[in-house]
């Protein structure tokens, strides 16, 4: 049988069998391309949202490490001296998490100073970061855990 | 006119077009499977590395252990490892410290893991250059 004849329609047929198969394959490739592209778009959007959340969480953690929770002492010249990476557990209650979340544009925020081996109180939040530091009151190494949603 | 029977042609025009379409589809697949870590993840990794080194310098026990380790004192490797392991295990990162002729991986499970997209820096401990590398464990 001559294969070139399969593109020709038999009587009463609009498309030949090869043309139908080719059309189906083309439709399948178009469908595949669109589904891959839409999947990529969804993934890119999720990554962007997660990146934005992570950047805000990092900013909050950085503020707490450098200013919010850091141990400060008044020097002889009357200036405040900040001791980096030495954080005061007692100051966690003074800083309002909800006010901080509002300023950072976060829906939810919680932070705490935890000792090694302890679990952060809201570790099931979408983004949680931990930064090692020395807990001033105990002198032990621990973490500043910041979780945001 | 495209024809597989054309003299000297190895592939017909249709077959070449099909191959190009298949190749372009295959090229799309890696884009969908391996997303690169965001810049913010890298920033967090750099911060975690700096934090660990800063805590090592400020905590008395860790500072003494790292100074002895950098000086190559006997048994210092185990002491520093014992102190660093709980910190690194809680962080979820692997840390490698390298001095002149000695190196240390923390936590212990990271000894066999190959660093993927690591971040690195160095510090001077006891007048010795210590290279520190951190990666996701």
Task: Provide keyphrases for this structure.
heterodimer, A: 149 residues, alpha+beta, 5-stranded mixed β-sheet, 5 strands, 25% strand, rod-shaped, B: 137 residues, 4-stranded antiparallel β-sheet, 4 helices, 50% helix, elongated
Layout of secondary structure:
The complex is a heterodimer of chains A (149) and B (137).
Chain A: H1 17-68, E1 70-74, E2 80-87, H2 97-104, E3 109-115, E4 127-135, E5 141-148
Parallel strand pairs in A: 2-4
Antiparallel strand pairs in A: 1-2, 3-5, 4-5
Chain B: H1 13-33, H2 39-58, H3 60-70, H4 76-91, E1 93-98, E2 103-106, E3 119-125, E4 128-136
Antiparallel strand pairs in B: 1-2, 1-4, 3-4
Helix pairs in contact in B: 2-3, 3-4
| Unreliable stretches covering 5 or more consecutive residues of chain B | none
Uncertain segments of chain A are: none
Mean pLDDT rating of chain A:
85
The beta-strand count of chain B equals: 4
Task: Assign a percent range to the helix content of chain B.
Answer: 40-55%
- Biggest protein-protein interface? A-B, 28 and 27 residues
Main beta-sheet annotation of chain B: 4 strands, antiparallel
What is the count of structural domains of chain A? 1
Shape of chain B: elongated
Which assembly state applies to the chains in this document?
Answer: heterodimer
Count of all domains of chain B: 1
Structure overview:
The complex is a heterodimer of chains A (149) and B (137). Chain A is α+β, with helices and mostly antiparallel strands and 149 residues long. Chain A has one domain. Chain A contains two helices and five strands; from the N terminus they run αββαβββ. A five-stranded mixed sheet of chain A has the order 1-2-4-5-3, covered by helices on one side. In chain A, a hairpin with a 5-residue loop joins β4 and β5. Chain A starts with 16 loop residues before the first helix and ends with a strand. The relative contact order of chain A is 0.13. The model of chain A has no long low-confidence stretch (mean pLDDT 85). By secondary structure, chain B is of the alpha+beta class. Chain B has one domain. Chain B is 50% helix and 19% strand. Chain B has four helices and four strands. Chain B has a four-stranded antiparallel sheet. In chain B, α2 crosses α3 and α3 packs across α4. The radius of gyration of chain B is 25 Å and the shape is elongated. The model of chain B has no long low-confidence stretch (mean pLDDT 83). Chains A and B meet through α1, β2 and β4 of A and α1, α2 and α4 of B.
